[in-house]
Amino acid sequence: MKHLLSTAAVAAMALVSSTAFAQFGSGSFGGNQGAPLPEGFVPMETTIFCSQYPAVNPKTREVLYSFKAGDAKRVTVTQEGTTYEFTKGNGGNWTCKTKPQTVGFHYYTINVDGCDVFDPGTDAYFGGNKKQSGIEIPESEEEGAYYHFNKNIAHGRVSRCQYWSDINGLERVCNVYTPAGYDKNPNKKYPVLYLMHGWGEDENGWTIQGRTANIMDGLIASGKAVPMIIVMDCGDLKTSPTVKNPRGNVTDIFVKELMPYINSEFRTLTDRENTAMAGLSRGGMQTWSTVTTNLDKFAWLGSFSGLFGINGSIESAHNGALKTAKTDPAKKLNLVFVSHGSDENPAQPKQITQQMKDYGLNAVWFESKGTAHEWLTWRRSLKEFAPLLFKK
Amino acid sequence: MKHLLSTAAVAAMALVSSTAFAQFGSGSFGGNQGAPLPEGFVPMETTIFCSQYPAVNPKTREVLYSFKAGDAKRVTVTQEGTTYEFTKGNGGNWTCKTKPQTVGFHYYTINVDGCDVFDPGTDAYFGGNKKQSGIEIPESEEEGAYYHFNKNIAHGRVSRCQYWSDINGLERVCNVYTPAGYDKNPNKKYPVLYLMHGWGEDENGWTIQGRTANIMDGLIASGKAVPMIIVMDCGDLKTSPTVKNPRGNVTDIFVKELMPYINSEFRTLTDRENTAMAGLSRGGMQTWSTVTTNLDKFAWLGSFSGLFGINGSIESAHNGALKTAKTDPAKKLNLVFVSHGSDENPAQPKQITQQMKDYGLNAVWFESKGTAHEWLTWRRSLKEFAPLLFKK
Lengths: 392, 392
Prior knowledge:
homodimer; Immunoglobulin-like
């Protein structure tokens, strides 16, 4: 395809002295600028390079959207279950101001005359099995500090790793967080947390929406959590042009393929006392399934917004695995961490967690105040969960 | 926000036995399936999990698009400079078949009644300073093998690194490829190639659209290229809610901040003989600017679709830097690699390359047959360029 840099633009660039080429900064070309921002509004963290919109008023938490929709009849945006109307302005620019929003990361959908569209002013995030528009409503500086980049501490990295899966029949991608100092200490081995995303998301959910690296960098730098490796794999069997209907299941991929791959590629402590698994929503369910059927491999379990009920008694649940996890020293669970947002019906999971505690398991309950089935619940869950790991 | 997993779906999931939760595979929920694919068509490599469209016929290279546009009056897709009309089908599904396409990666835009929209059936790629729809038209198996994942060889990884920039006033992200065996050889140091994307793209361009890891894994495994670290930074000064008008320039960021960061975080050979820089399009221009003003730091230069002219003679160009690069042993350029696609007016850069060669520089020309200002030109350029590096 013809690249978006036109011949005219190239010619214009060639006229400028070569040193100037190193100085291209913001706004030099293109971008979705929209109308000038009203006082109090700033582009969001998630707003894309060169774009002014979407914008937020950090004090009121109102959001301003702008979208080029020409002569459309109706433009709306749906967010947090509420649909807002856009009004048409000059040059086909439609704008919309929402009511105050709750903090954290939110997907949203713009609709033009009945057609769902993507907002080019923001970044795209994989959710609901497609790339979607998303925004980040700022918390107070203090509340949100734990998931922002802190320039005053040491930083880990997230590696994009491709590995082959015979079960899936193709290569898969997992993201792996290694803590600060991993490269500098070539003889040190680390415990591992396998951390799963939810339904409709992928291996990038925890890396991008979840801000795992920033959260863990802070917890480790402050001594609250021990340095650990975090593996963020994909919870789906993948399809491809040649692999349309993959067989097998993801638990088998985790246990038979992913874990050996991780143990061969990274310096891991491989015993169960140094291996944890956690996940959010469907990833929480996958964690229950995987850990309770592989108690010889995992000694720590986390379920974020992922405990939706339990069949029968605690003792009989998961084919008696929780009984084994309590009574068999070789298969003991050191921690069963359960969290939910206060706005996603936490009563039942809270009650089950108490039952597990009464039964004799080290069950820990965390409730995220004022959040629902959403990423802020899960960022906070990771912040509470990770410090409990790999300590006895 | 309410997560896309509805309460009803959660209830349905809770009814299934826990083991089944580990088995959620393709198509269990949602996805943009569209009508069944006609014979000969398969989902593309770039088509998203759970989606059938866009699809391609690998033999004819025709592309089939599907888009839910309800009662729109007109739906089109623009690709390779040609606009195609969709036809309306059942259930608001509009479909469109293109003429045969050229191979490689292409951005495209769907337009509904005058409004540019994003295709939820495909992944999103940063280009033109926004996330855009993109597709990958397959080459023949043999031609494209060098940029596909090869399960029979060892693999490097790409790390997402966040580093603080005083010049930019905020944290920046660069992607860093480390070759297979990097972790296993903690005393080995590696040469470094700084590899820049083009205008409107970002640090993910080479990682995702460019397939750098697959290309380099193959070149290194076959002994064609020496193992090296590749740094893929962003060629823009970034903006943020708090940094609206950053000062400074990217050459300063590269030389004063990025290079020291890379040398402290990775095991690099830091002398000029082991340091190269290359870039595509505007990134090629940034390479000319940075290398010619820092000949004490770089001994190898690559310019892919990024040589658009030269002021005056070779000897006087870049304030005499090419003369220095020829005559000063401490500032000698070991390689000046120039490439263009055959379909993007290669005559002038080819001629300038010949002039550099005649002048006495080790100037190498590569022309990508049948491609224009696009990613296939640049994948092929990297494949030709990397084997020439760090060998004398």
